[in-house]
Recover the amino acids of this structure.
């Protein structure tokens, strides 16, 4: 028996396992070896510096369609070719009807791939950067992920196509509101994306209380000035304190102080005071006097005049608190105005006012800094079967006419081209009173940190700010801890590259803020 | 010695047929378990993030620096301590409540007993995300719990459950206990049903009281079942993610962050896959050690 077993065991179970394992590992390694790695598609764009022939067409949409015709004529694409767009499910209503129209016009087959959770889009995008399957042709992602995607080698530089097809983003009567045209598309001075959204924050308040003569008299008696919408943060804090009436079930304000957007309120004050996230060597400036004072003010405001769920809730709290009438004012994305005016979701219909975000006075000049929080931009996969055809689609979708129709439909993409602010369709969608306010706020909008590793920079900042709001840390300590974390991130990702990106990124801020920085000597140019 | 040719053929057929039959499973195990594990080990030894623009197989070798960084990372160590604390509290209470319920159902006869036993199991059948959302809503500032407290004791009795780290952790533990006590109940109740009645009957005949019967007869016989239930729950609770993610997001700050949540953030939000791999392997070693220590008494019993 023993000898038989030994004979049988010329290939014992253990040996077999070893052999199978080696074979499997060999198989996997062969798939992982650099040789068979999909080679990144050769840049479809001409080399920088060469002159690019313009595509004919009167409008961006026309030029995009002509581009598709030319690509077909050159045999680069053909009818029925499929292209996949990865986007958030909240944009279904904006995108899907447009896709049907585009497919009808071009004979191509652009399809939508929805993802319900924003964070999962980032994960899928990064997976694609590693696996290079070409599963997605176009990404509609957060604006401040562009750097990560570009550095991971996933998306193509669109700069030359912008010259070739002219999407009319930064010039002419159809231009985007500046500076949104810049920070939704630029990374290290190159166009890696095309903005498809405007997530500039706005402040909404209870107009009925402001128009109440008794309130006006009481306010005037108390502060010696008329009850008006505040222009500076100092006035704002008094205004909020005046209308804070917890005994009547209404608190003064809802501003985010929670885990993900706690930075927004602080950043608006910090930057309007002349603060900047980093100096030109990427050393954090958030522990400056501007940073600490801004946080001290915000902590006081949140701890004294907001419901506790400003700290413990999430982004949706503004969308329940304000429409139910339990806060006097709230700030959030433009859609909060729609919610507060919809009888299905609001108890304060007809009582809503919108205002420009307050700022800080500097030698008689009011500097407002309005956070543009999140925002969505189109970028194109390097592994797409035809990146140029994808570019044509995004130019067509964001075009002055197509975009107007797409953005006016209910969805999470908001108005971004300047002439749209006068369109009846948009006035109907947003309310006639709100559009001028949104336009003014958009002109003062500054971007989220959009460097490589933006997620980590913002998350670490939020983490410490939330601790300050919860009373677990002194404001100064919270900012110092965040600054220490930022230094580690910068060093890990490569300081020189981050410096290069930051020096470009700060040029995407509104001109008054850049002027203030120069005046204060923070930056020379 | 020469074997007839038919014997040789049969032997060869059996040999290759046997190998052929297990080959698919072996390959599956290699591809879904062993090779990913090897890749995780490799990643933990290099310095790599997808956003660095370098392919993972070309990442610079980092030696043990990711491990060194992990054991010096206060956020990792705190998350580990917090998770261990949460596991100890939640699993202990789940065990005690499960045991009490199992004994009650085992010893008492009452109408609708089977229906009640079934109802008790429902929380366990719910997805984590549903339980997390329900408990999140329960403890909101304007949620039902505060509503009851205010109704009973006035406005000052309202509690900011998610603002205070200890209270926030308590709500998470409570959700876990609510969901997983039924598991303990089910396992122990089944164990009680499988015990031989003779030792208990003999003890009763000899005049032992209920406590003595439980302490000296039932509990020792039930020990293997209890140990298995505790090991399964401990390992499962150690991975707690969904409840924390939904109820507090790990906040305020990181004060309720569990190990899994920190690993998720490091790997998928910050993109530090190498560092996350090193931390994950450290956690794996720790959990394996705990499991080994926990299983040892069971081996003695068996």
């Amino acid at each position: 028996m023993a000898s038989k077993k030994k004979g049988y065991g010329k290939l014992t179970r253990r040996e077999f396992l070893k052999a199978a394992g080696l074979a499997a590992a060999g198989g996997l390694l062969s798939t992982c070896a650099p040789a068979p790695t999909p080679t990144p598609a050769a840049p479809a764009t001409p080399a920088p510096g060469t002159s690019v022939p313009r595509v004919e067409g009167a409008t961006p949409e026309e030029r995009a369609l002509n581009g598709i015709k030319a690509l077909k004529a050159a045999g680069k694409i053909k009818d029925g070719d499929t292209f996949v767009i990865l986007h958030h499910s909240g944009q279904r209503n904006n995108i899907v009807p447009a896709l049907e129209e585009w497919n009808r016009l071009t004979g191509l087959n652009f399809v939508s791939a929805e993802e319900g959770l924003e964070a999962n889009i980032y994960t899928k995008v990064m997976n694609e950067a590693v696996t290079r399957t070409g599963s997605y042709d176009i990404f509609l992602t957060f604006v401040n992920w562009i750097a990560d995607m570009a550095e991971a080698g996933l998306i193509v530089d669109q700069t030359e196509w912008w010259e070739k097809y002219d999407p009319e983003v930064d010039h002419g009567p159809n231009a985007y509101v500046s500076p949104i045209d810049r920070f939704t598309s630029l990374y290290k001075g190159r166009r890696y994306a095309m903005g498809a959204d405007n997530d500039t924050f706005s402040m909404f308040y209870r107009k009925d209380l402001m128009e109440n003569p008794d309130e006006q008299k009481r306010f005037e008696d108390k502060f010696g000035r008329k009850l008006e919408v505040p222009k500076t943060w100092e006035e704002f804090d008094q205004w909020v304190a005046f209308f804070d009436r917890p005994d009547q079930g209404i608190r003064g304000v809802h501003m985010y102080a929670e885990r993900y957007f706690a930075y927004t309120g602080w950043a608006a004050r910090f930057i309007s005071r002349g603060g900047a996230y980093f100096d030109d060597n990427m050393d954090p400036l958030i522990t400056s006097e501007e940073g600490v004072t801004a946080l001290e003010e915000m902590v006081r405001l949140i701890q004294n005049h907001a419901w506790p769920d400003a700290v413990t809730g999430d982004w949706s709290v503004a969308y329940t608190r304000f429409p139910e009438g339990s806060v006097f004012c709230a700030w959030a994305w433009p859609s909060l105005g729609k919610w507060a005016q919809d009888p299905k979701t609001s108890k304060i219909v007809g009582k809503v006012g919108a205002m420009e975000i307050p700022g800080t006075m500097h030698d008689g000049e009011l500097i407002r800094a309005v956070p543009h929080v999140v925002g969505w931009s189109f970028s194109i996969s390097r592994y797409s079967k035809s990146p140029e055809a994808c570019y044509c689609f995004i130019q067509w979708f964001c075009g002055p006419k197509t975009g107007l129709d797409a953005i006016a439909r209910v969805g999470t993409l908001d108005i971004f081209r300047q002439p749209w602010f006068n369109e009846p369709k948009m006035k109907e969608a947003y309310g006639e009173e709100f559009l001028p306010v949104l336009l003014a706020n958009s002109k003062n909008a500054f971007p989220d940190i959009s460097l490589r590793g933006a997620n980590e920079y913002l998350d670490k900042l939020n983490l410490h700010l939330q601790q300050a709001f919860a009373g677990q840390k002194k404001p100064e300590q919270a900012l110092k801890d965040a600054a220490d974390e930022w230094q580690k991130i910068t060093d890990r990702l490569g300081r020189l590259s981050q410096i290069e990106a930051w020096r470009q990124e700060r040029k995407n801020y509104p001109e008054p803020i850049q002027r203030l920085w120069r005046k204060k000597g923070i930056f020379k140019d | 010695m020469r074997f007839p040719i038919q014997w040789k053929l049969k032997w060869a057929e059996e040999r290759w047929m046997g190998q052929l039959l297990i080959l698919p499973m072996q390959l599956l195990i290699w591809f879904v378990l062993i090779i990913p594990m090897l890749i995780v080990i490799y990643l933990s030894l290099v310095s790599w993030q997808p956003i660095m623009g370098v392919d993972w197989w070309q990442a610079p070798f980092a030696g043990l620096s990711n491990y060194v960084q992990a054991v010096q990372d206060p956020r990792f160590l705190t998350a580990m301590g917090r998770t261990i604390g949460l596991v100890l509290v939640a699993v202990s209470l789940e065990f005690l409540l499960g045991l009490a319920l199992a004994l009650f159902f085992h010893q008492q006869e009452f109408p609708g007993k089977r229906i009640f036993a079934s109802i008790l199991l429902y929380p366990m059948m719910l997805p984590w995300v549903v339980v997390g959302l329900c408990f999140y809503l329960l403890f909101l500032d304007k949620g039902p719990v505060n509503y009851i407290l205010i109704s009973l004791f006035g406005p000052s009795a309202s509690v900011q459950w998610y603002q205070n780290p200890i209270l926030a952790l308590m709500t998470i533990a409570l959700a876990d206990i609510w969901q997983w006590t039924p598991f303990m109940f089910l396992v122990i109740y089944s164990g009680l049903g499988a015990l031989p009645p003779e030792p208990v009957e003999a003890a009763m005949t000899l005049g032992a009281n209920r406590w003595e019967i439980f302490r000296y007869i039932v509990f020792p016989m039930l020990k293997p079942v209890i140990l298995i239930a505790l090991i399964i729950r401990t390992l499962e609770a150690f991975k707690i993610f969904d409840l924390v993610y939904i109820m507090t997001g790990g906040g305020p700050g990181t004060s309720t962050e569990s190990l899994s949540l920190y690993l998720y953030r490091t790997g998928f939000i910050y993109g530090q896959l190498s560092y996350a791999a090193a931390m994950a392997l450290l956690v794996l070693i720790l959990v394996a050690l705990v499991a080994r220590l926990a299983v040892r008494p069971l081996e003695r019993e068996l």
Remarks:
- The mean pLDDT of chain B is 92.
- Residues 200 and 218 of chain B are 8 Å apart (CA to CA).
- The first helix of chain B runs from residue 5 to 44.
- Chain B touches chain A at residues 11, 15, 19, 22-23, 26-27, 30-31, 34-35, 38, 49-53, 55-58, 140-142, 160-163, 165, 248-255, 265, 268-272 (CB under 8 Å).
